[in-house]
Design brief:
This protein is α/β, with parallel strands linked by helices. Helices cover 41% and strands 13% of the residues. It has 15 helices and eight strands. 44% of the residues are buried.
Length: 334
């Protein structure tokens, strides 16, 4: 199988998207995911505006053309700094620039960005306006339903009012409150209860906004049911990383597209990508660490993970290791 670059209307890409996930959704992970879905929107890991301005821009912003449609997620709370970072990123040709107002980690709290911005909707609106002044790409927001002692029934509409007045038309809502006082980032992904109904009510209240739901979605069937209830899009997080075939292969049916390669075809089309990376001086594990879940739930999955986990990080690991791992899976699946 070869994966052709096919351009589709960006306005529909959010029917299904893969969440930005720190240390996971790097450029290699995104290429891997793109081999399973031509339609879904992909997001970068969050990159801080300060890093874009002061850091190694090519390393932070480069991506493969095969990754489109692709959104850059920025973290920050200084309007001028975010505007400057957006202007820098403009030349890379991202399809969207997203402001992170949902991450609950200690690091983003100390920097006054991420979920803590739910308490500062006027500042968020100022940031969004500044970002929009520096790009023709859509500027969007990813947020929570509230933080700490906020009442989501009041805090979320107030936040959306500010966002809409700033001219933003697409919001991804993680349907959990973030507890910044007393819960770890991991606990913030699991303990605060989900409130999908609140997100659905926000769609009814703001029909002019494109509203996508994130949080607790673990299957394509569940994603479709949420779309059928009237949401504009569904964002899938950790399951897209740990069992990508289950939620990305066949996902294009949400657009009426029959593109659905099997897992062996995906493994095959990744081989030349890995070869090119190795030839450029890269390490195999930089790519294959994202592929460990490709055969989850299938015969040979354990052998696949063992081969790549144990061997791919070793100096000199090459395509022979990859081929052995794939041959072992094929043998067990036969």
């Amino acid at each position: 199988m070869t994966q052709a670059i096919t351009l589709f209307p960006k306005s529909t890409a959010h029917r299904l998207s893969v969440a930005p996930m720190m240390d996971w959704t790097d450029r290699h992970c995104r290429v891997f995911h793109r081999m399973m879905t031509r339609r879904a929107m992909l997001y970068t890991e969050m990159v801080t505006s300060a890093a874009v301005i002061n850091g190694p821009k090519a390393r932070l912003l480069d991506f493969s053309g095969a990754e489109h449609p692709l959104a850059l997620q920025l973290g920050g709370s200084d309007p001028g700094e975010l505007a400057k970072a957006t202007a820098i990123a403009r030349d890379w040709g991202y399809d969207e620039v997203n402001l992170n107002c949902g991450c609950p980690s200690d690091r983003v709290q100390s920097g006054c960005f991420g979920a803590v911005l739910m308490e500062r909707p006027a500042l968020v609106a100022e940031c969004l306006s500044a970002m929009q002044s520096e790009t023709d790409a859509p500027v969007t927001v990813k947020c929570r339903i509230g933080v700490d002692d906020q009442d989501p029934e009041r805090a979320l509409p107030d936040f959306l009012d500010h966002v809409a007045r700033a001219g933003v038309r697409l919001v991804v809502i993680h349907a959990r409150k973030a507890w910044l006082k007393g819960l770890s980032p991991k606990e913030n992904r699991e303990i605060p209860p989900l409130d999908h109904d609140l997100v659905l009510r926000m769609k009814a209240r703001y029909p002019e906004l494109t509203i996508c739901l994130n949080g607790g979605v673990t299957s394509l069937a569940q994603a479709k049911s949420l779309l059928d209830l009237g949401l504009d899009g569904v964002m899938i997080g950790r399951v897209a990383y740990h069992d990508p075939g289950a939620v990305l292969i066949g996902a294009d049916a949400l657009w009426g597209d029959d593109f659905a390669p099997d897992v062996f075809e995906v493994a095959g089309v990744m081989r030349p990508y890995i070869a090119a990376h190795l030839a450029a001086g890269g390490r195999m594990h930089q790519i294959t660490r994202h592929m460990l879940g490709l055969f989850t739930g299938r015969p040979g999955a354990r052998s696949w993970r063992r081969h790549l986990s144990d061997g791919a990080s070793r100096a000199g690991a090459g395509l022979d290791l990859y081929d052995r791992a794939l041959a072992e899976v094929s043998r067990e699946a036969a």
